[in-house]
Amino acid sequence: MKRLMLGNEAVARGLYEAGCSFVSSYPGTPSTEITEYAATYGDIYAEWAPNEKVAAESAFGASLAGRRSFCGMKHVGLNVAADPLFTLTYTGVNGGMVIGVADDPGMHSSQNEQDSRHYAKASKAPMLEPADSAEALAFTKAAFELSEKFDTPVLLKMCTRVAHSQSLVEEGPRADFAPLPYKKDIAKYVMMPGNARRRHPVVEQRMADLAEYAETSPLNRWERGTEGRLGVITSSTCYQYVREVCGEDVSVLKLGMVWPLPEKMLREFCASCERVVVVEELDPFIEEHCGSLGLKVEGKNLFPLLGEISQNMVAEALGGTPHSGPAVDAQIPPRPPVMCAGCPHRGLFFTLAKLKLTVIGDIGCYTLGAVAPLNAVDSVLCMGASVSGIHGFNKASGNELAGKTVAVIGDSTFMHSGITGLVNIAYNGSASTVIIVDNSITGMTGHQQNPTTGKTLKGDPASKIDLEALCRAVGIGRVRVVDPNDLKATEAAVKEELAADEPSVIIARRPCALLKYVKHAAPLCVDREACKSCKACMRIGCPAISMVEGKAIIDATLCTGCGVCAQLCKFGALNGEDKQ
Amino acid sequence: MKTQNIMIVGVGGQGSLLASKLLGRLLLSRGYDVKVSEVHGMSQRGGSVVTYVRFGKRVCSPIIDKGEADFIVSFELLEAARWTSYLKPEGTVVVNTQQINPMPVVIGAMEYPGQLVDKMQALGVKVDAFDALSVANEAGSSRAVNIALMGRLSKYFDFSQEEWMQAIEASVPAKALELNKKAFLLGAEA
């Protein structure tokens, strides 16, 4: 029976059916659910690793042990895992190894929109790219076959629209994959110069073999049109937009394997059509390859380098009629994401904004400390960059700015790549103040466990990192814990640690308000007579509070009773009793 | 049959993912090709969220573009107005009249525009506006707004009540089942 499945769920199903037994990943939108669904299969060992590099290397270890293994990550996660990737193509694999990477064109939930296909070319690894859930399942299985046949890690590239769309999938049984024996092979697996020099030609030969395979692979499909005028080369979700718009007269070369590309097939396809257009999101990856073969194709002259493509854009570019609809005659205020009502980050960022501090931020829900009205964050670069960044900021300014600067990083992000930055602060001695916002979960990606939560991906009890002890162990003398909802205590702690002429860590600890086990207090109410319309409570940007007819009003369906607003009201107008 | 397009729009946290899951189940049980496209991650944190549900004989694109939606089901008034350009000229907006202020309105930088239902009607599209929050509260929980809206949407399709109920049963937790069934029926009658 066919089932409706999210693309990411279908990848997990593919892992199961391929006989994969080891999955190690770090969560990141839009890749997270692959690993969460994989964990629901009893036959698959699945874990959250502290970061993508650890995940990829663990998956390599599992492959070395003869098992089929997988690691999943978002596009920027592959930057972190790039180090093992570029040498993994030299060693090759034992059991099949697949690296899932999910791009986010349009940046629904990312800090950049880099195009992962460049990694396939640069690291010399084959890359498959499914266009819907059925292909996500089938390509995952095919990726393992290719991995073992060609002795290489295989990249499986998703994008937001394939990862987070549900479409129909036919399930199959799990393959009976017998673990391959582990054989010591120093020349293959010990990558020191002498061995690596002998492995590099193997890599080049493999790419040539894979390019030959691509010519006849069922992963690439030539859908012949009834006319020879227009031909479209495309892959991934763009294929769906092309199929939505173009009739049967148009020829479509649908590439399921986007690296290496099939030269003969591209030449024949281009020769068969009067005009060829490449439809691809982000960079002109396929287009430039065609150009390098001397083929005349169009692409980015018609489509943008930024964001997502849609069926209307394809229609417009190919001379069709895009649809349009009626717009309301009103100025519609934007609705950007905000920190949730009751979010424990709010009290902290209010304090940092109040003290007018420079805040070197990081990746997570707390990045939202940068938006109005808090506007508290000065920079956000990548995972861990707050802790490393503040060190450089303070060192370079001769610690002159250290008394006005903090780094803010979440618990999971700190485990991902904050700890090495903290080692640097302690080792090279900058009087930096690092605030770990410990909400006891990986929040932004939807509540994943991490090494500080005491639970594994499958929910079993696990060793729980003691953040205080860890910070002290790397050499930080001043480590303290504060409740970010207690504004006075938080302000005092931040002031004291900024004044200290040595490195310090403040752990602002309170669990995410959305966690099921977190009990909320009764919603607060506004005493309308006591309210003097001073708007002090509006400074925290809580979505539960607004001003109606000059007086504050609290939305009882959103308010968690965290009480941060009440601490700002000089008139005692915000309280737990209904006086409205 | 021509592909039918339903957009579900609202504010992150209102439960639109569950509504799309329910619709997906229902449509699949009728043997349609179905695609449902969701957005996860940062956008979910109180931001404007949109889910696309498409069904028909063969569905290619997972998304709905401007001028293509047969229905927009909106969990919030302003969000309905934000997305009307995605409607077909003869499309229908099923909208919860509840207003949730976005941050620019909360902090006083912008105003929540008035007369949005009238302004949508002035475009010539069909507007089916009702207070789904009150319906949900009557059923027992403000969280049932999503199912109340599905009840209202059900009036435009020829699925039997039994089929809807089966889809609800398969989509909501057992302890919330009765409440949600009630919300569905009240939404259909409202």
Can you give a write-up of this model?
The complex is a heterodimer of chains A (580) and B (190). Chain A has 580 residues and is an alpha/beta fold. Chain A has four domains: 2-216, Rossmann fold; 221-317, Rossmann fold, CATH 3.40.50; 345-509, Rossmann fold (3-Layer(aba) Sandwich); 520-580, Alpha-Beta Plaits. In chain A, 35% of the residues lie in helices and 17% in strands. The relative contact order of chain A is 0.08. The mean pLDDT of chain A is 96. Chain B has 190 residues and is α/β, with parallel strands linked by helices. Chain B has a six-stranded mixed beta sheet with strand order 2-3-1-4-5-6, with helices on both faces. In chain B, helix 2 (77-83) links the parallel strand 4 and strand 5 (87-96). The longest helix of chain B has 14 residues, at 16-29. The radius of gyration of chain B is 16 Å and the shape is globular. Chains A and B meet through strand 1, helix 8, strand 8, helix 11 and strand 20 of A and helix 1, strand 2, helix 2, strand 5 and helix 3 of B. Strand 8 of chain A pairs antiparallel with strand 2 (33-37) of chain B, so a sheet runs across the interface.
Order of helices and strands of chain B: EHEEEHEHHEHHHH
Under the CATH scheme, the architecture of the largest domain in chain A is 3-Layer(aba) Sandwich
Task: Provide the CATH topology of the largest domain in chain A.
Answer: Rossmann fold
The end-to-end span of chain A amounts to: 56 Å
Quaternary state of the chains: heterodimer
Largest sheet of chain A: 7 strands, mixed
Number of strands of chain B: 6
Global morphology of chain B: globular
Largest inter-chain contact set:
A-B, 64 and 65 residues
Largest sheet of chain B: 6 strands, mixed
Mean pLDDT of chain A: 96
Radius of gyration of chain B: 16 Å
- Which strand order spans the largest sheet of chain A, edge to edge or round the barrel? 3-2-4-5-7-6-12
Number of domains of chain A: 4
